[in-house]
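Hi R.,

Here are the chain sequences for the assembly we discussed:
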Amino acid sequence: MEAKLHELKTRLLEIDDLSRAGAVLNWDQSTYMPPGGAEARARQMSTLGRLAHEKFTDPAIGKLLDDLRAYGESLPYESDDASLIRVTRREYERSTQIPSTLVAELSNHASTTYQAWTEARPDNDFNRLRPMLEKTLDLSRQYAECFPGYEHIADPLIDFSDFGMKASSVRQVFADLRQALVPLVQAITSQEVVDDSCLKQFYPEDQQKAFGEMVIKRYGYDFNRGRQDKTHHPFETKLSLGDVRITTRFQDHDLGDGLFSTLHESGHAMYEQGVSPALEGTPLANGTSAGVHESQSRLWENVVGRSRGFWEHFYPQLQMTFPEQLGKVSLDTFYRAINKVQRSLIRVDADEVTYNLHVMIRFDLELQMLEGSLSIRDLPEAWQARYESDLGMAAPDDRNGVLQDVHWYGGIIGGVFQGYTLGNVMSGLFYSHALQAHPEIPAEIAQGEFSTLHAWMKNNIYQHGSKFTAPELLERVTGGPLRIEPYIQYLQGKYGEIYKL
Amino acid sequence: MEAKLHELKTRLLEIDDLSRAGAVLNWDQSTYMPPGGAEARARQMSTLGRLAHEKFTDPAIGKLLDDLRAYGESLPYESDDASLIRVTRREYERSTQIPSTLVAELSNHASTTYQAWTEARPDNDFNRLRPMLEKTLDLSRQYAECFPGYEHIADPLIDFSDFGMKASSVRQVFADLRQALVPLVQAITSQEVVDDSCLKQFYPEDQQKAFGEMVIKRYGYDFNRGRQDKTHHPFETKLSLGDVRITTRFQDHDLGDGLFSTLHESGHAMYEQGVSPALEGTPLANGTSAGVHESQSRLWENVVGRSRGFWEHFYPQLQMTFPEQLGKVSLDTFYRAINKVQRSLIRVDADEVTYNLHVMIRFDLELQMLEGSLSIRDLPEAWQARYESDLGMAAPDDRNGVLQDVHWYGGIIGGVFQGYTLGNVMSGLFYSHALQAHPEIPAEIAQGEFSTLHAWMKNNIYQHGSKFTAPELLERVTGGPLRIEPYIQYLQGKYGEIYKL
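And here is the predicted structure of the full complex:
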């Protein structure tokens, strides 16, 4: 068994090398690659993706997993080796259902579409992307069709990002959540709009960057094993457990955009940086689901980074960094500004309360596109109609509408957006359990001290990588399945106080 | 035949994708990778190199080449397809003689050694690198031993970079050159030392960078298909024909270091950018030899970039960029400063006249190490002794001695350095032929206009990639074999005038 396990790990390591090399090429494409590199880069990434997929779906891997099954089951469930055999088998079974040619075509298509999107979005030109997006939808359907027997065609795609969830279960969580959110949004938006003009002054980029990096160092993001660069759309990427990078963007006249993007991506990155080094080079060395991943980005961005205590500590430093802009702005005014709730058009700029409504729109549209009840041609109009009905406003153009998010233009359609809201829900749930274990955490945050919270997350979540599925992790950490109540209570408590509801 | 040719090209394209992906990882390692990424990166690059090597040495490629041989020979010698079949066969025969495991070990070892060098060099700690360098020498010998029947053990390594050359032929060129150079160096260095203090003032990095980039744009380096970043040791790298990057370094108190590095690397890059797009993804899409490559970097750095005419045009702009530093410095003083000839310690900082003496030292030491007559342990001492005897000076430490060049610490020992001097010789030879065809070139340079020279190089050299070997290219372009006379005449003419010899 030792020899077989060793062979499995050797093969997985080679596959990981190819995948991580692809991640380097993708990072470079998004950060520094000159335009002339686009065509070859798409092909190079596609080749790496295809080879990784071919090697992972090699029947020899299936044979090794068969041979190792009994051995794996004889080990403690949470041991590294048992988890490796179990999780690799699950991914192997899923991957062998997808033809290598489809994987390569998707990767190639995603890369060229992404490049086109970076140009079409500023030009507000959805039509230029339409044929590409039609192909994306077609490829996404083909992808889902590799897993027959689904209840809804989106289920296999949802399952890929959030194992154990499907369209119907997500719909249920979203319906419950909507029931609590809509009255909260109404109560808040019936009040006078908060003045956040203090955030819209001129903030030089270099100082924004320095302040954000200072904060995430304090959080525990390790710059010896990472770095931050600028991209159109912020993201986190793992090039190895020793090199987990984040990207952000800055706006001269919007302090919140760059800063909270940085905090958000640092949450993703601390998750990956916190995975046990023993899992490097295996399918276990990743966050376990989109939802759990997002729980960390939203925790560090919002639950921590937009809390009153956090700013009691950091606001004086921010004022010193930007004395002209903020010297005369009170903490209270600033705190209300960064937590301003308002119906708006852009998901990534949305506040904590309305954010999930944005996600629900995308989730529903994805389902409709995959079902075939909504064509790409009609997508911009459908987008506008949902914004009208759910948020009471329509975008002046597609740039601020259907073109705003990279996801459909750099990947597949389906199974992507639900993770954001599942993550929000989990951020509240995990935080409530961290507080039960360590009631001193809020006082520490107000001292700019995050090690207790970081350590709790690392011990309970990060170190395990994807040893446990999200439902298993929730069971281990919270003693039960996903519950929305702590998140709702968090929102009601925080915003009830701010808006005196 | 069409089908077989198509299959060959498809296979070569996949191999090229893997190799170029490796180049992206290497570029990233040298520019932006955080220290924590080093270990996994070495492994990732090694995996890519091994896979590319395995795929290139697949017997199926040999079979295709056999099947295509007669077809290739029936086509015009310089046609794309005939050249592809011919050159691929030559590289295939060479590569099949090297075991994949050795390729992987070398790549892995080179990557970790490089990382160690970036730390050991500032620490002046040769001993830390000694065991690694001993392994490098051992691996380099193993590499050479894959090609039995050599006259000198360095020959196979020289042949890899400069096909058609060997230790004895390089020694002959070097001996002839030395005979002309030594009296020139003596005549110059017996005079008063030129004052180059104007270059040693404080020059802010941003303005150095902007000026250098302005010049290479004028040269014809295409920033849509490239970019410049900072590294310890400047280099040029081709990530695809649409993405040919250069790196440089800047010193606050040495204007020449960054500027002439930029011009140098732009020459390498314009060569690669000028390769015919029809050759993309094949072994033909590269410069044909280290020597020819270096002829271009040295041409644009020295023959053009340190010429009087060049600075008649650009010096007023440089003065405007640095008015405090250069406003009162005459063109004549500046021109003498950038062409100051002086016995010195650092190869990359050496002037045109003494530069080749630095190369000869390294070349001879490489031969001795490979022969086994010089151990790594004795290398620093041997280095110092040769600098004493050839240049009349010894370095105060290893940092400015044996640790100065990356080559031995990031690759193999042997076959690397001769290309620099062969390139110098060729730069003079090619330039003399460009002038014969277009006597107006010097006048154009004095107008800051480089298109005639660039076009001549592109038509005669760049576009062909590696269709022709260096000896073939010399024959086509100059009507004969390598001759040192035009280069010697260039040096004697230029420096005879500056030093009134």
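Chain A has a mean pLDDT of 96. Strands of chain A lie at 228-230, 236-240, 243-248.

Let me know if anything looks off.

Best,
T.
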